[in-house]
Amino acid sequence: MLKLRVGITTLIGLFASFSAFAENGIDERINLAIKPFADAVAGAVFSSFPVAGVQIPFVLVWLIVAATIFTFYFKFINLRAFKHGFELVRGDYHDPKAAGEVTHFQALATALSGTVGLGNIAGVAVAVSLGGPGATFWMILAGFLGMSSKFTECTLGVKYRNELPDGTVSGGPMYYLTKGLAEKGTNFARLGKVLAVMFAIFCVGGSFGGGNMFQANQSFSQLVNVTGGDASWLADKGWLFGLVIAALVGLVIMGGIKGIARVTSKIVPFMAIVYVLAGLAIILMNIKLVPSAFGAIFNGAFTAEGIGGGVIGVLFQGFKRAAFSNEAGVGSAAIAHSAVKTNRPVTEGFVALYEPFVDTIVVCTITALVIIITGTWDPSVDPSAGVQLTSRAFESAFSWFPYVLTIAVLLFAFSTMISWSYYGLKSWTFLFGENKLTDASYKILFLFFVVIGSSMQLGSVIDFSDAMIFAMAFPNLLGCYFLLPMVKKELDEYWADYKSGKLVKTRLS
Amino acid sequence: MSSVLMVGIDCSECGDRAIAYAVDQAKRSNSKLFIAHVIEWSPFSFSTVQENFERHKRREEELKRANSEVIDPVVNKLKEKGLDVEGLVRHGNVADTLHELAIENGVTNIILGRQGTSKLKKHVFGSVGSQLVQAAECPVTVVP
After folding, report:
1. Which of these, A117, A134, A54, lies nearest to A371 by C-alpha position?
2. Is the Cα dihedral B88, B89, B92, B95 positive or negative?
3. What pLDDT was estimated at residue A362?
């Protein structure tokens, strides 16, 4: 414990001295140094092709096509298993002998706390601004289709997880890509190893980027916004904010001070509910405007009046927001969900259907409706100022809401960082082996990026962050395509049992 | 109909009076006696990714500790007195789980001490005893 304290103090000292330099222009130099690399990577991942005048990134097509194919392959499992998924989350099929293990509810709640965040709040504002209200329709559609991707990857995550002798569990795309594809033969086994390594590398990148720097940066931005914008005392103290957050995150991931994470994991769902209730309140208060809002949504979705890029442009904004927000197909959720205790992997797939449902179809849509109803969408919005737009939208109804939103954003960002630090750690140790050195080296790097994320003007680094997360979808979905028959087998067997009444429905006490 | 008794305890020294009462009853009616301990746990709690991955391991540790520190001392002591005694440990909500265990094991009478619950919880949720008295399907005896 003392060694840890000394270690953390040293780190903070190092960061402080680094950041002191950062204040004086080193950040500019680093920005310039990283920029070409960041841009090259982002450019590669987001390489796009023009459709009707709009540049569509290939990776987006990759995600949506997979989601669509999976939806049809599993015959709309997102609809068929919706009710049963709810029953599972509620605990109707809970085995009393398994009391004390991770339940479906807990796995889902944990995964959700990792994905619900700034994408739902800030990203939606940008999408609706750039794509008009019609983007909401495509966003809901993408969320609906994405449920099938989550179903597939989370079923695989549980099926091919590793259970270590000491009782700890490890799961995720790294494991189903290696173990799962190996079941199909030696050539596939080799492909599986390659894909798993690719995934692990991108996941580490994602954990430093979208799961870390982006969160730190955006939550700082909202904090500055709510304390007076440019006139705020905090305005140029991103490094300080970064240090504080790094210290808190460090206490959790290195100091083992679970208390902070535990407190956060209890507050985050509460904040999410507050956010949803506030949104619903605004919608209900303006219930007369709701029909016209939906009218605008459908109109905009298919006619795209006045939107650059026409219907394709609107579609693009909606799909992009859904994909970014619920991460369906990216594989990170498969890591979180694989911790559940169950003998039937497909049950967690059913439960995972609720993730894009809650994240995109519920929370994102509520945000979109609030923005449309309050008329605060602004086509000239700067993508990095998305959270301010949402803030303004809520503020028009509840003047105190920006403060609540700031707290919510900070908490969401913090919990997302904790979750992604774990995803990245698992990927890092998958690549470099599991020992004290690899463990510590990853965590120190992670904290380093927290400080960088808050201190710097993100621009191209935001693109890099997102690029890494999306790059994960390449190996993940490719592997999923090959593993579809495995999932189908699990699904068919379970569904037969379910329909024939063989499954034991217990009352959860 | 033979009776089966179950005593719910929080720790190995708590509920001494409840255990004594149960032992007395068990001897008189020649009944089987269960000593039950519930580890507080909720299926609806919120946790981090890391906690979930470590949960299984933690659970095993918790069960082992509950058995060695709470149940075994009591069970062994009672076995020495020649009683037909068995220990039960499970995670969950205390009142609900005690009830569940009672049903599973055909318990005819649940015996509890009065002190078990923290003061705050008692005011908000009612003590374990009062919850069980209201909801159980068999007689519940609360020993002061």
Report:
1. A134
2. positive
3. 92
B54 → chain A, closest CA residue: A168
A504: nearest Cα among A296, A310, A347, A325: A347
Q: Is the pLDDT of residue A205 over 80?
A: yes
Is residue A236 within 8 Å of A456, Cβ to Cβ?
Answer: no
Is some CB atom of chain A closer than 8 A to the CB atom of B105? no
Contact criterion met (CB < 8 Å) for B91 and A100: yes
Contacts of B44 in chain A (CB under 8 A): 91, 103, 105-106
Domains of chain A: 38-499 (1.20.1740.10)
**CA pair distance B127, B130, nearest whole angstrom:** 5
pLDDT in tens, A239-249: 888 889 999 88
Bridge-based pairing of strands A162-163 and A169-170 is antiparallel
Q: B61 to chain A nearest CA, in Å?
A: 10
Structurally, at CATH architecture level, domain B4-143 sits in 3-Layer(aba) Sandwich (3.40)
Percent of chain B with pLDDT over 90: 49
Among candidates A100, A168, A509 on the partner chain, residue whose Cβ is nearest the Cβ of B54 = A168
What's the mean pLDDT in A40-58? 78
Q: Indicate yes or no: CB of A167 within 8 angstroms of CB of B43.
A: no
Contacts of B67 (CB under 8 A, 6+ apart): B87, B89
The helix/strand count (H/E) of chain B reads as: 6, 5
Per DSSP, helices labelled H in A22-57 are 27-45
**Model confidence band, residue B119 (pLDDT cutoffs 50, 70, 90):** low
Cross-chain residue pair A265–B104, CB shorter than 8 Å: no
Summarised one tens digit per residue, pLDDT across range A412-429 is 888 889 889 999 999 999
Q: Which residue of B has its CA nearest to A269?
A: B46
Interface test with B, best of A87, A92, A93, A101 (most B CBs within 10 A): A101
Is residue B32 less than 8 Å (CB to CB) from chain A?
A: no
pLDDT in tens, B126-143: 678 888 888 888 999 988
Predicted confidence at residue A68, as pLDDT, reads 95
pLDDT at A157: 96
pLDDT of res. A509: 40
Which chain B residues contact residue A86 at CB under 8 A? none
pLDDT averaged over every residue in chain B: 87
Cβ pair A370, A279 in contact under 8 A: yes
CA gap A234, A229 in Å, rounded: 9
CB A206 within 8 A of CB A424: yes
Structure token pair of residue B69: 């520190």
- Quote the CA–CA distance of A468 and A430 in Å, as a whole number: 17
**Residue B49 touches chain A, beta carbons under 8 Å:** yes
Tell me what ipTM this predicted complex has.
Answer: 0.87
Confirm if A329 and A477 have CB atoms less than 8 A apart. Answer: yes
**Span of A289-298, A348-357, B7-16 with lowest mean pLDDT:** B7-16
d(CA A466, CA B69): 51
Interface of A with B in 417-446 (CB under 8 A): 418-419, 422-423
Task: Please tell me the predicted confidence (pLDDT) of residue A24.
Answer: 47
Please check the confidence at residue A23 and state whether its pLDDT lies above 90: no
What ranges in B1-144 are assigned the alpha helix state H?
A: 16-29, 49-65, 72-80, 94-104, 119-125, 128-135
CB contact under 8 A, A169 and B99: no
Q: Is residue A306 scored above 70 in pLDDT? A: no
